[in-house]
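I would like you to sit down with the record closing this message with an eye to the fold:
=====
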Amino acid sequence: MAKKGQESGSTRRMIMTLLKMKGPLTIGALAEELGITEMGVRRHVLQLEQESLAKTKVVRQAMGRPMHVYSLTERAEDHFPKSYHNLALELLRELDHGSGLDAVNVLFEGRRRRMLAQYTPMMQNRDLEQRVAELSAIQNAGGYMAEWSKEEDGSYVMREFNCPIRQVATQYRKACQCEQHLFEELLDAKVTRSECMAEGGQCCRYAITPNKKEKTSENSK
């Protein structure tokens, strides 16, 4: 069973590769390229359609019946290798080399300000625990695999188990500094990072302590 599943996955991958490199293609053309039956190809292509990874288009001919040709969707692009972090690093290095590290830091600060403006409305009229939960959701949406918990002393801990910008942060620590400052501004609390993946940690761990105003408000309830 495992071998059959592996073969199915391999055929599916080859179909996607052919559509990427040579598409749009008909079922017949795919079958000829792969050396398998049209029925076998059709089964895989229909599955790709159901998953919104492939789409079909009817092409009318001067003579004969219309042809159904298949191509990949935008969603399928996520299944192919990307090197965005390499491009980002190359651009940052060029800026660093040409204008100096201060220019690179200005970029990270600009990114922090844009994110602050984007997410601040989502934190309004919420207490600290709600803000921590919202920040964790924001980070999860960005691929950081974040979770949070409340400690016995009333503080909070947020952990991120993935860092989409790890390659960049490893070479430019300003990225981590800006993230920490962004969290402090969004949460209106003291945020301390005790572990960082860019420094070889298993996760990025943040201790979140209510400010005096927040503590006073909670004690008065």
Residues 2-22 form the longest helix (21 residues). The beta strands are 25-26, 54-59, 67-72, 146-150, 156-160, 189-195, 204-210.
